[in-house]
Structures are given as structure tokens and as C-alpha cells.
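User: two proteins, same treatment. go.

Assistant:
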Amino acid sequence: MGDSSPSFSTIKKWAAEFKRGRISLEDDPHEGRPESATTPGIIEQVHDMVLDDQRMKVREIAETIGISKERVGYILHELDMKKLCARWLQCLEHFIKNKTDFVCEFITMDETSIHHYTPES
């Protein structure tokens, strides 16, 4: 049957399921992942933590609140917050203060933090 056919091990599992009395190949219904990690209270908590400390890491937020890093990432995405390198933010500050000597002070690191930029109108 080619690539579209199920593997031999899948067929064996199906045969075993039918012998046990199963009548369908459909998955059993399940509730899925609870949405408790994305309640308005937790979303507000994540938002406040990022605004209080823009260098806060996703791991630190997850550990503080007690949710997974994936859920924190999902919340940050929904809040339209992006992950930026903290050092680049410092470099931008140095550049704005001293444009002529900026290159002399340029140093890079490999550490990330979260920053939410709101341009002033």
C-alpha cells in the first residue's frame, strides 16, 4: 500500500484492541489539558512580573508562578511580548547616550530576557 498504509506494529495494536472488545479505531474521548494555567489572574501575574523586571527569564516566571515554561511562552505570545537579548537593550542605551564611542564599549553576551516596548506617542 505504500507510504499511506499503517505500520505492522500499528496493525498489531489494532488487532489486540479488537480482541479486547474495542469496536472503533477512534481515540477515546478525553478532557485534554486543563486551561487553569491561562486564567486571567495568572495572565495578569505574568504581565506584571515582566513589567516589573524586563530581564526576567521565562524559567524564572514559570518557577515563581508554578506553571510550565511552555504556558509562560504561550501567555507572553498572547500578550504580544517578545524575547530580546538583555545585552542588546543595554547597548541601545549606551548608543543613545554616547554615539561616538559606542563601538569601543560594545560587548556581547548570550543571555535572554523579555522586553515589552511601548513607543511614546
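Protein 2:
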Amino acid sequence: MNIVIAPDSFKETVSAQDVAMTIQKGFQRVFKNANFINIPLADGGEGTVEAMVSATNGKIIKVNVLDPLQRSIEAYYGLIDENTAVIEMATTSGLELLNEDEKNPMNTTSYGFGELINHALENGVKNFVLGLGGSATNDCGIGMLQALGVKFFDEKQNEVPIVGAKYIKDIKSFDASVLNEKFKDVNIQVACDVKNPLCGSNGASFIFGKQKGASEEMISELDNSISDFAKLCENEFGKTTQNIEGCGAAGGLGFALITFVEASLESGIDIVMQKVGLEKHIKNATLIITGEGRIDNQTVNGKTPIGVAKLAKKYEKKVIAICGCLGHDYELVYEHGIDAVFDITPISMDFETIKKESKRNLELTAYNVAKVLNMK
């Protein structure tokens, strides 16, 4: 019996690697002679670097960069071969780096993310996988571009400083000529799990601004500022890009990558599954187990369990999902290739206790699932 375990992390609780190992422990109590293949996954957000480095025997590169508020921190990216880097923007510009009272997209910058890209470029990397999940920024990627050498100017031709979205409204021109040589023969895949355009009611500011600390008034100002900036860019480059699905990812970072360096926005989970070689393992599997921290109606929009299920159904394999908890309309996943869903969370526990007990509850749930599967 070949059992493939390919989960995402349980966010802020258990890493994808630990999720896979814990599920295996539960299943081994019943299927003692099964062959287990653990392949931790991510969909472009938290854990993408770890998952891909682990699967490819790559290495972690540590670099001192600026965090969202321009404080020096040690961040990292992964090398999965000598020419390919995997970078999560959250490691430099993520919400997890800020205290609650520090969240304010007017002040947060993606500059550190650009510094990581720069470091990789200077060390000969030609292929990039960039994960955009978990951003604290709404600067339309301007900070990243500044780190890469792009200069932005106001109407008096003064250079705009590196300070979040505060000065986007002042930008009247820019010089991006440095990018032509820097990104010559460079391929960039953007691992993205959202389909939002840049602006409007379904855009970066209105959908994600509040969680980054923006007030209602601030959200409207942000949307107007990046809309004007997008028009400036589109006029300069002679192409319309702001309505492409995914341009609103990471506060408009998707837009910057498409418009300035001709990156391709792709399904994060599809990129990761391809890079880690999941298909060859699924092809020979008896059963596939996947999961994530919360399964709800958003799971069907390109999250890890659905990516795994779609690949499994290509070979008519059964798929079980184990998650931390179930949310609204979770049953929609049954229409997308998942055959059964189990959650591990006892309702009577508070969240801090749930976090402490998560591995035990995960193992017990996996054990119970295996017992059901083993019924004669």
C-alpha cells in the first residue's frame, strides 16, 4: 500500500513537514506495513520555500534586508538548483513581522523583497519562483522596484523616498532602464493563490487593505493612488495590465512584476507540485492524503488541497483531506476532487490550547481515519 501525504501547513500552528509526519504516525498505528511518501506543500504563501527546498535537497540562503518598516532583519530564500531561487515575500515584507499597532499600509514597503531578488540576481540566479502570500504592504511593488534600482519622481523631479504607499500619489514619472540589463534572460514565475485585479471593489486595497491596518478612508485613498500609478505605467510601457487576474496580489506586487519585468502569474500550488515532482508519486499511490489549517469555501480557489485533488483525479485516486478546522461551505471541496474531509479540532478548546494540542489531535484524527479505512 502506497500512501502519499501531501499537505500544506496549518498556519501559525504546524509546519507542512510536521503535518505530514504526524499524519503518518497516526496511519502507521493501523497500516504498519504501508509505504509512506511525505511531500510537504505550499501554494505560494507561508512554507513555500521550506517545501521546495526540502523536496529538492536545496539550500537556504540568509540575507540581511529591510523589513516592512525599514528595520534591519535576517531573511532568507531557497536555492533549489544553482540557477533557481524560491523567495517568499512574507519573509521580508509580511504581516507576521509586525505588531498589531504597527500595521499601516501607508508606511509599509516591499523594499526588502527587492533586496532578496537583487541578492539572488547578483549570485547568478536566472530562474525565480516568487511567492506573494501574507504581505503587509499595499505599495504596488514600488518598494521592491526601488531596491532593484528603479527611480520614481514627483512633479518637480525630486526622487520619491522609500516609504510605503504614502507617496504613491506624488509619482509623476520614473526611470526603469536599469531593469533591461538586470533581467535579461531571467525567467520569473509568480506563485499566486488570489485572482484579484489591481484596483476597484475586488482589488488589492478594498479586499486586503483592512487586514493590513487600513481604515475605510485610507482604503479609498490607496485605491485611487495605485489606479493613477497603474495608468502612468501602462502609458509608459504601452500595455494594459492592471486587470489581469492576480495583479492585486500582495498589495499590487503582482502588477509590478507583470508590468516591469514581464513575470508570469501562475497558480502557486501548480508551480510547487511541478517543482517537487508530486505527479509521479500520485500516479503510483493507493491513497492520497492532503490538508491545510482551515478548509472552507475559499479552499476551492486554488488552495493546496484542491490542487492535490485535481492532480489525483487525473489518475482516479481517492483523496482524503485532514484540516485544523472546518469553515463556511467547506462541503464545496467535494465538487473538486476531495472524497472525504476530517477536522481535528475539539470545539470545546480555546485557540491557545488547540495550538498546543494540535499535533496530538492531528495524529489521533489520522489514526481514526485509518481505522475507518481498515474496516472489513
